[in-house]
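Predict the 3D structure for this chain.
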Amino acid sequence: KLLAEVNFGSRDNSRRPFAWDGTENHGFTTGTPWLPFATRSDEINLEADTKGEKSVCNYYRALFALRKEREVLRRGEWKQLKRFKKDCFVYLRTLGEQKILVVCNFEKAQKIKGLPEGKLLLSNAKRNLGANGEYAPYECAVYDLK
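Done. Predicted structure below.
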């Protein structure tokens, strides 16, 4: 019974109106939304996120820009490299002479040895340590392997 109540209540969380900014009704509507906004929508909204140092929105913008800029990320051949660790996904994109290495760490900080070296293009970690084979928790790093 408790699980059913939690699941029912959780369903509405994903249906709440999106908070664009800190204004009244958070830039979502001039009317009254069917569901209430999340309790901290004044401080947690898109406008506030884009101003932050660890902005998820800005990271995705950079990721999309990199994909648009590099044809290899759109059309390149995809190859998963051997599994270096249980919770680390590493793959290579190649198109002609272009090569991009992507390292996704889904766990605590870990050291991954044996990766090819390249120029860091993008990372969601403030301080990428990938040159030493060290990755921050939940870090994703993209390298150019020219």
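Residues 2-51 form one domain.
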